[in-house]
Amino acid sequence: MKKSVILLLLFFVILNIYAEDLIIFHAGSLTNVLHELSKAFEQEYPKIDVKLVAAGSLVVARKITELHQIADLAFVADYTIIPEFLYDHYANYNVVFSNNSIVLAYTNKSKYCDLINKNNWYEIIFKKGVLFGHSNPDLDPAGYRTLMVMKLAEDFYSKNELFEKFINAKNKFILKKSIDLVAYLEAGELDYAFLYKSVAFQYNLKYLELPDEINLSSDEYKENYKKVSVEVPGKDGNPMKIFGKPINFSFTILKNAQNKKAAIEFVKFMYSDKGRKIFKENGMELFVLVDNPDNLPEELKEIWGF
């Protein structure tokens, strides 16, 4: 019996030593940029096979904490998710790496696309025959951020009951994650969708940039954003209130990662000239903000100057 246990342990040790898969759980809105980054990374590291698993950011967290699925890296579209869900058992640092904004995306086939602007979009989306959509607030930050945008818009445009009208709209589609809305737009099954600016840019969609006062992009208006909040399922399904704030994406290397060395190399490549170029070409600028730099791997401390 003891011999069998020892052999089994040796098997797992050897398996871990020679593990070449790098598993990345990530927000759906990062699908394009991480796919391009992974392909470039694999060209330089041909022995490493990057496995990308896309989901809404809240689902990413629940896969790790509730379903106990194993990943090496977790990328989320709301930087507060990592400390809220993954600290301290699964992670002990959080790297904020890029920002974004909410836009209203559309195509040449969208109804009233030649008329829509910053002063009438909140009327256009409710017009007869128009179909619009956003992602599920319980699963995806782009979804609950859309609700925040509408709450802010109600005050900004002085339109009483705009948010209630939005919530009760019969011409609205709610999909699992924001990236799913792209296919509906491209197929002409939706006229408008609330998306991240980077996603609209990556898929060559037309988009209306909403005022900074409501689009969750600007530190200048962060105090105003904080005036609105939404409730989503938190840990163990208990309601969690999330307040408005500027959009920032983040990642962490998980404490139980099976291939930490490859994860570190991936992050280093991400911040190389090649990696930065890939992000820029996908409408995203890279930067680094770390809450607990002392917990970073030494190699990342070195490249970021901590």
Automatic annotation (TrEMBL):
Biological process, per Gene Ontology: molybdate ion transport
UniProt superkingdom: Bacteria
Transmembrane segments: none
Family: Belongs to the bacterial solute-binding protein 1 family. WtpA subfamily.
GO MF annotation list: molybdate ion binding
Name of this protein: Molybdate/tungstate transport system substrate-binding protein
